[in-house]
Amino acid sequence: MACLAVTPVADMHQTLRITEIFYSLQGETRTAGLPTVFVRLTGCPLRCQYCDTAYAFSGGDMITLDDILERVASYKPRYVCVTGGEPLAQPNCIPLLQRLCDAGYEVSLETSGALDVSSVDPRVSKVLDLKTPGSAEVGRNRYENIVHLTPNDQVKFVICSREDYDWAVSKLIEYRLEKRAGEVLFSPSHKQVNARDLADWIVADNLPVRLQLQLHKILWNDEPGH
């Protein structure tokens, strides 16, 4: 009887659908301005009205974890950011994060906060995006994730209006987020809130948060690969 060649099940499972892998400056979070490799996973269950990466909702290429690690290593980076889309929508994101940490990189994960983060390697800095009412996805917030925050993590609010700001302040106080995470970031939604206005609100209320501006929009105006 002839033997048929089959792909081992383990090999089939060790893949991720990837939109792009590129090297640039980190535009956000506490490592803003540092050279970073970005691994952008394909797919997202949310549809935030301000999303600037809708091109990552579909398409992409199936790539093995070994090949992803090899491509990341080719840049000789110190920092690696796993982003999307929503990276945690693909189960193999979890082993990818672990392997990147094992390789010695400082790893961050940009997640919408709509999916369970409890299995994320504690060495990873989770950047948890709590969705404001102005995002059109506030109902997707998984508040159970807050108990999994550590001083290594960051919480981000994208502010679309003064009402969003007031809502974000209420969540900051309710969950004492500045005590749970290492950083709380308030970011103005591009072309919706003036950064100077947001800065003035933060100063007036003496908030324990960091104003975040998106360097990639300032430097490269959202050109692909940045």
Automatic annotation (TrEMBL):
Q: Which Gene3D superfamilies match?
A: Aldolase class I
Q: Which residues form the Radical SAM core domain?
A: 31-226
Domain of life per record: Bacteria
Known catalytic reactions: 6-carboxy-5,6,7,8-tetrahydropterin + H(+) = 7-carboxy-7-carbaguanine + NH4(+)
What the record notes about the co-factor is: Binds 1 S-adenosyl-L-methionine per subunit.
Q: Which NCBIfam families match?
A: rSAM_QueE_gams (TIGR04349)
Q: What does this protein do?
A: Catalyzes the complex heterocyclic radical-mediated conversion of 6-carboxy-5,6,7,8-tetrahydropterin (CPH4) to 7-carboxy-7-deazaguanine (CDG), a step common to the biosynthetic pathways of all 7-deazapurine-containing compounds.
By what name is this protein known? Answer: 7-carboxy-7-deazaguanine synthase
